[in-house]
């Protein structure tokens, strides 16, 4: 019998995208509003390292680059006005995006998260962080919000290959990620993992290993990024010196399709390519155009007569 894409997606895509997930859950259009709450990162402030991960530009949000950060409420209201004028967004998620958004004492986190959730039409939070920057107290705080609101924790992992984590200078290993995911999932908080396709010295099989490992964990969503060579990063420098092999668009679309096939159908695909970074972008040229990349992935899946989860276990 032919396997068909799941009906519960209620979309015309070959994967379960975030917009459809939110529309199905809330019956409304929901948008994420990026917030820079002024956090730093232990991989930059010297406590774990000071050079950062090899692909990270370390500049923070545009607001931070411009000077003094406006209060969270002001950032959220500006974001709401932007989306209201351009879309039919009815509800918003405050996305604590810049650097490590659990890297502060619980009392500080509480006041920042409270402020975001007190804004009208903000129905939840998405908190980007590192797996080594959560503990039971922080997870408990986030779990309290999750009882009443729509709450995600987004963990950067990038690869489930230990050697890659070491080579990129992440400053934590696979075990810390798995531990953080299990602790977070036990408290009914939604989890999104970030991965990069095309990191140095990773084979197609390594990237599939990452996908299969994530598929086996209680993870609800994933962001898939292509490796970008950016000015001012160690990998950008390697690229300029001719020492950074990058994937072609066809290779990227092939590997992302492989990855999607093994991820479970309930896992929400929050992102399929990196974008932004226009002022420091070096390569690969194809990654400049997000739509071209998404179309290439959809074409590849369609040619295979495949979709997310077609080869997932269980
Ligand atoms: S953990 Fe995140 S913010 Fe910190 S250096 Fe790595 S990529 Fe940059």
Question: How would you sum up this structure, described in words?
Answer:
The chain is of the alpha/beta class. The chain has a single domain (7-303), classed as Aldolase class I (TIM Barrel), CATH 3.20.20. It is built from 11 helices and 9 strands. The strands form 2 sheets. It has a 7-stranded parallel β-sheet with strand order 1-2-3-4-5-6-8, sandwiched between helices. Strands 7-9 form a two-stranded antiparallel ribbon. β2 (91-96), α4 (106-117) and β3 (122-129) form a beta-alpha-beta unit. The protein is globular, with a radius of gyration of 19 Å. The two termini are 17 Å apart. Iron/sulfur cluster binds next to loops.
Proportion of helical residues: 25-40%
User: What would you call the structural class?
Assistant: alpha/beta
- Summed over residues and divided by their number, the pLDDT gives a mean of 96
Compressed to H and E, one letter per element, the order equals HEHHEHEHEHHEHEEHHEEH
Strand order within the widest beta sheet? 1-2-3-4-5-6-8
Rg value: 19 Å
